[in-house]
């Protein structure tokens, strides 16, 4: 009933053949060794789930030792880094909306005097809470930071303020996501990661397939320009990307109840730029990859830093500066800011522009590279 | 412009690393001719054809295709040349009609529907327009590929081993079609390994190790080989042993059995006759002096050139 018996020599023959083929495919071999090394070094050092030195804007209308002590205390806590000082409340809102700062601290006029009287003046701390993970630890430490920065000043006649409730009425405003719902942050972000993965892989494979199947030779022998091939190859995928977006937004709003505060038209501008930028990356990979397997590997090589270093999985500001520089180069980083900005914050086109143009620069650079890499001959 | 030779190249050279694949090739092909391109595997036929249609940039030499420079006017050449690749290179996941439509659109042909319909009719594929190209048999794939590369009515047709792996009847029909196209004024350069196909060409060029060894009509190529041939037939067993005996004798360069007949050839007439002399009067064997075949001539040319 049973077939021929298992034989070691046949197994050995298969294993030896597989090893020979593995060694022949240089790129795959390099990737197998390189990917773990690069990723360990990159992500091991870059990722930090406890972000510190978060940029903070301060608007202080009070010049008492108390308010100065609080600002200094925030800085020394290492959670906050005073990046901006302004006197304009509108400017404060704008910086939060654009994501230039993570926190905005407002100290009202007469803060010091009210504190000395024991009136418990209000100290307003506004957080950009689109990503609850980025602000959580800092806000958790806030009470203690304020208390310990004030306590050296509360001696003598003010010592009574040390007892009882905090001398300051600390008001924390979690903007854009007051309940700290993780889905509000993750679901729009998923749109970016899903698009990155599908757009890059689909285009990288589409062009590599022509080479693998031998149809490229026929295509090259006919009068057609590289840009015509590139745009013609990418155009159908823009439509595919559009359909994916509709599905994801539909799911996000109905299933996860993610708000859509901003203008869908503004989001579309960001989406289109982002989709085309990813398609260009896929096309570039396809001009380098020898076969579909390599195209797939390159796509993953690009995809991993995209999800880990863009602020999708871990707070962007938790990464060291060098890692943030790498992150800034990735289109997903900017797209996440656009999509969260429009859906959660209701940002207008002008607010999203600081993240649109880097994607355009990326798109331009990658397209130029791809078109120059694309060979009109078989050389 | 139309008086220019279809192909005229001088000193065409292509290297891959240290390996010279095409070495100083000179070739002229007059308009309206069917020009055979022969040579062993790896002799540089495909590379030469690819350089002619702008798919590869030559490392040395100059030349024109339809009066246009192969280095600088590849774009113009591509408009007027039809190239059929060795491997089927249309889209297997498109139907026959969709493939032809794609090609017609790329060339921006007027009356696309009419042209495609006519090509399908000519192919005899009208009833199978909806069939995926990948599901066609080898012979049909090759006919479809030919139809696709003549759709834009090129002046020059470059065919790279178009009939490899195709059955004799399909080959015969394919060559009838080639002759029909040539009658209409099209120039054809076709590479092949089949001697019967070479004999259907007006002229042939023989390439080995990247060098052109012979060019001319079939008779001219045989004559330039300077080969002399005797045919000997007899009982099968005797012919088999005779082949071994003759192969070791000086003067016999080639001994090739064809069933019960041996083709014995050598470049020196006297030496060849001296070599076979002891066997001439052996009973049961019949000897005739004959023209060498094209295949004999080619194998002689090939062995005479160091690799």
TrEMBL record, chain A:
Its main location: membrane. This is ABC transporter permease. Coiled coil: none annotated. The lineage of its organism: Bacteria, Pseudomonadati, Pseudomonadota, Alphaproteobacteria, Acetobacterales. The keyword NAD does not apply. It is a multi-pass membrane protein. InterPro entries: ABC-2_transporter_component, ABC2_TM, ABC2_TM_bact-type. The keyword Membrane applies. It comes from the Bacteria. Keywords: Cell membrane, Membrane, Transmembrane, Transmembrane helix, Transport. Pfam families: ABC2_membrane_3. Gene3D superfamilies: abc type-2 transporter like domain (3.40.1710.10). Belongs to the ABC-2 integral membrane protein family. It is found in: Cell membrane. The chain crosses the membrane at residues 27-47, 186-208, 229-253, 265-286, 298-316, 356-374. Residues 143-377 form the ABC transmembrane type-2 domain.
From TrEMBL, chain B:
Residues 7-234 form the ABC transporter domain. PROSITE patterns: ABC_TRANSPORTER_1, ABC_TRANSPORTER_2. It comes from the Bacteria. SMART domains: AAA. Pfam families: ABC_tran. GO terms for molecular function: ATP binding. The keyword Repeat does not apply. Keywords: ATP-binding, Nucleotide-binding. This is ABC transporter ATP-binding protein.
